[in-house]
UniProtKB/TrEMBL annotation:
This is Protein FAM162A. It is a single-pass membrane protein. Interacts with HSP90AB1; HSP90AB1 is essential for FAM162A mitochondrial localization and pro-apoptotic activity. Interacts with VDAC2; the interaction is probably involved in inducing mitochondrial permeability transition. One of its GO terms (cellular component) is mitochondrion. It comes from Homo sapiens. The keyword Membrane applies. Belongs to the UPF0389 family. The chain crosses the membrane at residues 103-120. The lineage of its organism: Eukaryota, Metazoa, Chordata, Craniata, Vertebrata. Keywords: Membrane, Transmembrane, Transmembrane helix. Pfam families: DUF1075 (PF06388). It is found in: Membrane.
Length: 141
């Protein structure tokens, strides 16, 4: 019983130390420019006239012939004439990912067909093996 109470005292002192560290970090947060509203910390609002440094322009890329084929095979466009001169990199990535999925489904189907074919061929060989064994065995006397 003595070790259990000692363990409880050690856990309690550890908890108090952690609590003290958390409360000191909260004091630092409260003294900065963050506002505490309903338990949430929010940054002060910037003025609406301040210039934004983010650009909404998407970089465009001129697709190669291979990338045009991928865009057509993935179903993004029906004909090569429909593909614009420049496309976004996100569109190319989405088409490549769609092609990867289609190829993986094809590989799964081919693997299943190959397994079934090998089972059938194995049964044929086994059947032939046993028939040869009975024919070639010496007659019993």
């Amino acid at each position: 019983m003595g070790s259990l109470s000692g363990l409880r005292l050690a856990a309690g002192s550890c908890f108090r130390l952690c609590e003290r560290d958390v409360s000191s970090s909260l004091r630092l947060t409260r003294s900065s420019d963050l506002k505490r509203i309903n338990g949430f910390c929010t940054k002060p609002q910037e003025s609406p006239g301040a210039p934004s440094r983010t650009y909404n322009r998407v970089p465009l890329h001129k697709p190669t012939d291979w990338q045009k084929k991928i865009l057509i095979w993935s179903g993004r466009f029906k004909k090569e004439d429909e593909i614009p001169e420049t496309v976004s990199l996100e569109m190319l990535d989405a088409a490549k990912n769609k092609m990867r999925v289609k190829i993986s489904y094809l590989m799964i189907a081919l693997t299943v067909v190959g397994c079934i074919f090998m089972v059938i061929e194995g049964k044929k060989v086994r059947r032939g093996f046993f028939s040869i064994q009975y024919v070639c065995s010496p007659p019993r006397t």
